[in-house]
Amino acid sequence: MPDSGHYDFLKPISSSITVPTCRQQCKREWIQKKRADPNFKQNEKETDLIRKKRKRCDEENKAQEQQADLFRKRAKRIDETYKANEQVKDKIRKQCVRSDKDYKMTEKEKDQIRKKLKRCHTQHKTTEQQKDLIRKKTIRRDKQYKAKEQQNQAIYKKTMRLDKQYKATEQQRDVIRKKTVRLDKKYKTTEQQNQAMYKITMRLDKQYKAKEQQKDVIRKKAVRTDKQYKATEQQRDVIRKKAVRLDEQYKATEQQKDVIRKKAVRTDKQYKATEQQKDVIRKKAVRTDKQYKATEQQKDVIRKRAVRLDKGYKAKEQQKDVIRKKNRRLDEAYICTEKISNALFKKNRRIDAHYKQKERLKNKISKSKKRLNVFHRLKEKAANATTMRKSRLNIAYREKERVRNTIAMMKRRTNENYRAKERLHDNRQKQNQRHYNADSELNINKAQITSNRDQNHQNLLHVTTNTENDTNKTSNTKDCPNLPEQTNVTSDTESDDEWTEVTNIDDRATGNLDTLLTPETTDIDNDGAYCYAPGERNKPMEETQNQLKEHYVKIKAELDNMCMGDDITFEEFLSKLKLDEQTYIDAIRSSLATDKVFLKRTPNDQN
Fold this sequence. Notes:
Layout: H1 22-34, H2 38-56, H3 59-76, H4 80-97, H5 101-119, H6 122-139, H7 143-161, H8 164-181, H9 185-202, H10 206-223, H11 227-244, H12 248-265, H13 269-286, H14 290-307, H15 311-328, H16 332-349, H17 353-370, H18 374-392, H19 395-412, H20 416-451, H21 457-478, H22 545-561, H23 570-577, H24 581-590
């Protein structure tokens, strides 16, 4: 800090000023008269200049003279007219003098040095800044002046900013200044509002908007090379979008915009392909989390159920699935994998007894529907015959089949109605066999008597024994023509004991499920219909025939009443009729005169 004595020349020195005497006054009057002559005046000026220069060589005299001038000018400047005239004179004088560039430069340097010395004093600096602010505020009310000032500043800054060092220091200053100023929240909010309004007005110009977008893209690309910055930016965006999307209206408009944008972009096939690849990779990575996978599957199930209520959509989806599966099944490897996956899926599902029962009912109905076609029945018989023959070549399978048949026979014979049926059936078979044997013996005897009466008794006995053996063979095959040979527990080819359901799926032969027959042909749906065993086609006993017919009439009437369909299960339907499952089947069979196939349908879609 400079010493306060530096500004002592501004203080008045009363001792240096003397009151003029009468002699001095007379001398002044005499000089004024002489100065009326211009020549004298000019000569006097020259002598005064020389005299003053000599005096000013002494610093004390110079300081005293400056103080005297200051007090004199202060006294005169109290008069405003004098002050205004003086200012005009000073302007004219300075303009004339400043035409000389050297003088102008020296004056500037002097002013800078003088101002630097003064500004070292903080009080002086603050007062000067306040004065400048007040002066600039008053001047800048003139819009024309303000515009010129801004242009001059812009030009000056452009020229100065060509120097990189100056530019860097200026930026650092701006950063520090803005940080300190923005600590005030009111200032920060007003600044943001002003910037927002400025950008809105500027962005009305499309050219400016395009340039701004290009700059932003380049700047963001450069910044996002830093992974840490990129991660923080993404987190900010997520938090911001979550907060904004709480407004449902905003969310809906955003979704519409995304849909329109994606439609426009996806017209490019290359972009679409790359997008699909990215989605596949992303979904694979995400689906490694089992919990996420399960929730995604549940969402898909709910969505598909809602969409499939539309019958048109459902039909289209089915057609697409059929075409897709046909194309895939041309590959044999895919067929093998599909069979394995289907087998595993069905094994897991069949653990549930309720599901297993439902599946059997479906299979019965679908197979009975397919068996209306004669060609299909022939195919199925041929396929079943071949599969049974192949499977029975295995000794282990034959043993298992015998065990199953014996267990099934024991279970069935616990029912008294079944035992009664079996007895009637056996009696009828035995009677037919006896009649046939008797007729064959009579025919053989007649033929022997007429053909050769001269043969001896031993030859006759030999012939009769051979014919008896042949007739036994023909009698066994006569009742079941066109059926393959089977090894069963009993010799009765049309009893229910020949057909049983295998509990373990692994033990079943391919193409044959005993009671549920599955043909090997690919154009037949294995789950379509039931194939009854030979003994299962027999009608019930004659004693209960009338009662079963009454039940059938009751069932038909109930189904006719449900012409529009009711949303009930098969068990509810039986409870409504007050019948069990076996009675229901027997009642349906009582109405059959020939073989008939029943479609697999629930009560609510019986039309």
